[in-house]
Amino acid sequence: MNEPTNTPPPRTVHAAVMEHAATAPRDLALAHGDERIDYRTLTDAAAALAGQLTAWGVRPGDIVPLLVPRGAQLVALQLGVLMSGAAYATLDPRWPAPRIGSILRQLDRPVVVGRPGGEPLGVTRALDPVPLAALAGSARADRFEPVHAALDDPAMVFFTSGSTGVPKGVLIPHRAVTRMFGPGGLDGFGPGHLTPQVAPAAWDMYAFELWGQLTTGGAVVVVDENHLMPSRLRSLVTDEGIDTVWLTTSLFNLVVDEDLDAFEGLKTLYVGGEKQSPRHVEMFLRRFPGLPLWNGFGPAENCMLTTVHRMGPDDRNAPAGIPAGVPVPGTTVILLREDGSPAPRGERGEIVALGPGVALGYLNDDILTREKFPELDVAGEPRRAYRTGDMGVFDDRGVLHFHGRRDRQIKLSGNRIELGDIEAAASTVPQIRTCAAVARTDEGGTVAHIALVYTLVEGVELTPRELRAALGALLPAYAVPGRFEQLDDLPRRENGKVDLPALERRRV
């Protein structure tokens, strides 16, 4: 078991933001386009919106879906929802109507806030785009008194893909968001720090970028683009002075390949969401040996991050790839064998998270909540946990190493194969840029073969025969893929991760 040491003080999200607004009201909180918004303006605008939400019928404990585009007003609206004692669920107005409809049907006739003209998407209350300074002025004349919320009260809902095709709502309490930010928390957050907000608003890493700074006195630049491409990263560092950045692994690899110097000027970089590429990490560290590069690992159900690891030159020799690291503040990690007993150091087990980061459960799904969020006896004490489905091993130093997904284990010709192990081996081949191992099934659902879908480093060549030989030296014969499919790029989901289901459906 790995227990955290120092942890930030427990706070609700809006109370933490308001605390800084009271002590440093003129500090920059948000930048979006030409708008520069200080903490007092942000909290006053949020209070005005909270009053409007209450007038519309929003009550403490409600879940308020937001169909408002990314921007400063969305941030103030989210903060206003929290001030009203409710929780928000941010939905992308560009999503297909059936997806939005399936989410709204999971809620009990909610107040749905959107832009005028969005009524076909289920919007019940329309909000015109208004500068926050104008909203803040109206709030000062008739100040809304924020509702007191408990640490265990829901603050936000993140919708993840469900196995049935219906999105699963993950209920996140205030304590889960604030647990890793503040004194004793993660590096790169607080007064003087600036982070770009790029992650999709429906994803938990949006909260990492946004509330990580706003609950500690830092600032956020809202970026209109969906992905932080190298040229935009350069301009944000140069023109805005951003210093703390989160990138998905795939996007990090892209920037390293196309414009490594775009990272010049950063002070802290977090990378995660997928298994790290040792080659790209090594290239980055050679160019920026003193810039902290953190591997961030964890599911939305243990909000934002579960472990972090500062990557270094020696990581390229780790047998399982770049380590997942040690628990973030406010998180405990244990490993369980299949029989439920603790796995000792050096033995593979399922990664289980405990502590204030654990979500309240899944929206309207008590069965799945009981399965994935059991109460476990840990050192004689009953504790609520989240079973991640990820496999890991603690080394002799107590550092966690990721060993793939339980549900990515397949059986082919009588052999159990972990697809993550194939990807880890392929990632060590110098010519491979990105890759994914997928199981292809026949009409009866039986695994017919494993395909490795991959892209190559620009300007190099590697035939399937050569790749097969390279993997044959790294993997047992039964685990070497039967098909090799080279693409110009791998399909991505909205959050930047590889779209594995799309690759599984791919036929060549």
UniProtKB/TrEMBL annotation:
**A Pfam family per the record:** AMP-binding
AMP-binding enzyme C-terminal domain location:
422-497
Domain AMP-dependent synthetase/ligase residues, every copy: 19-363
Q: Which InterPro entries match?
A: AA_adenyl_dom (IPR010071), AMP-bd_C (IPR025110), AMP-bd_C_sf (IPR045851), AMP-binding_CS (IPR020845), AMP-dep_synth/lig_dom (IPR000873), ANL_N_sf (IPR042099)
What PANTHER family does the record point to? FATTY ACID SYNTHASE (PTHR45527:SF1), NONRIBOSOMAL PEPTIDE SYNTHETASE (PTHR45527)
Q: What is the name of the protein in this document? A: Amino acid adenylation domain-containing protein
From what organism does this protein derive?
Streptomyces andamanensis
